[in-house]
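Posting here for the record, re: calcium ion.
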Amino acid sequence: MEKDLKAVILAAGKGTRMKSLLPKVMHEVFNKPLVARVLDSVIEAGAKENIVITGHKREIVDEYLAKNYPSTVSVFQKEQLGTGHAIKCASEKIQNFKGNILILCGDTPLITSKSIQNIVKFHNENNADITVVSAFFDDPYGYGRIVRDNENNVSEIVEEKDASPEIKKIKEVNAGIYCINWETTGKYIDEIKNDNNQKEYYLTDLIKLAKKGSKKVCPYVLESADEIFGINSRKNLAEAISIMRQRKLDELMEAGVTIIDPMTTYISPETTIEPETVILPSTVIEGKNKIGKNCKIGPFAHLRGDCTIADFVKIGNFVELKKANVQSHTNICHLSYVGDSIVGENVNIGAGTITANYDSRTKIKSQTVIKNKASIGSNTVIVAPVEIGENALIGAGSVITSDIKANSLGITRAKQREIENYVK
Ligand code: UD1
Ligand code: CA
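Prediction output follows.
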């Protein structure tokens, strides 16, 4: 029988080098805080009722978690006395837990659910008491080093600040990710002491303590070291975004989507795109979206999330979409904003069309519905809530404030006048 799985995510640190008013784990990669990226991966891998250790500016993290991850528990670590101390703070919440506890850092947003699944599978198959995850770095500076014995078993982890020159040469580093059989091995957390150069309670000492108690410690080497890339600075944040972006583009191209210029294309991990769709340069797709096949998106298109685009749709240059459901064979080709809208099939939206969906005084957003085969003239403002009927026509330059029936023409512009010889 599979053991229950629960994750503890360490996120109490300040992140001094971010030079920010926000706690580090609340900085975003593709519109999601770092801690949420880690949570998504563990949840997708099957972890439930997870715990986040919070400290610095915890109220900001707690508010976000309560709203977006209500089943996640926040545990307060008042003083950051080390990673081992952070886990001690969670002890009360997990003391009778009989499953596996995954421990991860909240500032490593690139860890994938696939790797977490593999780690847990490896842990269970080996009947391990602790699985410690490692990776090989050309430049291991700053990380804890994995020390192995003659039989290639992990004997201990030594932090950079406590390492001898010999140990500093080791390129295998501690990823900061562990899977622990809590029933057999959780008790050793209480034995962790702070007798080291940093006077910190090191979680990594758990390895030594468990080995002393004849527990089975197994190393799991990550194939891609990218996955444990940690964020300590704004530069790291940009690097993480770049890695995540390239991952997504590779995945899409592999699946049959054409990306004309990967260098200038940003597509969120939460977006799905079907084959034969072409993404043109300088396109930014954020949030969660579903895009069909044979579409043409961009150049310079901006999807802001919650968009559903069916097949054979064209979204052209300088078009912004938000919460838009666009059905097949519809064109929105130039300079338009379509938000909170349902747009039918075979609709043509002329250049410069705006759905006015937001009342800035009441802060209320309203919906626009445009039925199949409607044709919206250029430079139309559609003031929501409003419905444009099937096959209806709107004259260019109109401001539409009330519904238009099927097959009708809606037009609000003033009649053209001509004053002959006026210029003379
Ligand atoms: C830690 C590991 C190191 C590993 C590295 C991987 C220890 C002693 N060292 O080092 O072996 O190579 O991660 O990235 O565990 N945190 C708390 N409370 C605390 C201290 C830290 O919540 O009291 C959180 C931090 O916010 C951070 C994470 O734990 O998210 C890691 O802490 P950090 O101080 O960055 O540890 P490292 O020195 O990087
Ligand atoms: Ca760190």
